């Protein structure tokens, strides 16, 4: 990098690891810029948690909105084709592109909350002016350390962990079936809103659903059975709290998740 001023930035997803990293770094990099790329479809609990985190950090968290909304992109560019794990256009358009615009052509060090006990790669920009660093990895901090950082700060983990294991859009296709049931119970209007995106083409028989293999109407019809299965799984995990249990389930499934949305 040249002798131009270097910006230090830390992206928050509303998830536990990036939040813990912000707390961990608070007094280490005075000029740190915190930001959150807002898809406009985040959970209310995420916004509430970010407000609390902002107060704790004593610094603003820049809310970066994509210039083109999900609905706009869906209609004008993706022909109603919902994103899915294989065609994750939403991540590119609503998370990565706004971040790169935020960085601009500045020389940027981006702090990423991947832990020492994780064998995965976060989003690392291919732009030459953005360099990613991994303080948890460098300091050998693991899952238990992250939970301790959050608890010691008094913030704990975001309230959505009561029913969902990751941050991200309310309609995120990475949600487990039981999390869709959680959305229906906690945020019935958002569940209804998610349904509005699903489509059935009677001519071709093609179905555009969020959850694999079934529509949200079909999923809703078997909500009780889904809940019972999920409860049995949670009971079988011997962790001290339900928050830990949910966070541990998320860890098991981490490879499927959208890292930049939920770290
Ligand atoms: S949280 Fe899910 S739906 Fe939202 S941008 Fe990320 S992958 Fe897409």
Strand and helix map with partners:
Layout: E1 6-12, H1 16-25, E2 33-38, H2 44-57, E3 61-65, H3 70-76, H4 89-103, E4 107-111, E5 130-133, H5 135-139, H6 143-153, H7 177-186, H8 188-197, E6 199-200, E7 207-208, H9 216-221, H10 223-235, H11 242-252, H12 259-262
Parallel strand pairs: 1-2, 1-4, 2-3, 4-5
Antiparallel strand pairs: 6-7
The chain binds iron/sulfur cluster.
List keywords for this structure.
Rossmann fold, 263 residues, alpha/beta, 12% strand, PAPS_reduct_dom, binds iron/sulfur cluster, five-stranded parallel β-sheet, 12 helices, globular, 2 domains, 7 strands
How would you briefly describe this protein structure?
The protein is of the alpha/beta class. The chain has helices spanning 16-25, 44-57, 70-76, 89-103, 135-139, 143-153, 177-186, 188-197, 216-221, 223-235, 242-252, 259-262, and strands at residues 6-12, 33-38, 61-65, 107-111, 130-133, 199-200, 207-208. Helix 1 (16-25) packs across helix 6 and helix 7 packs across helix 8 (188-197).
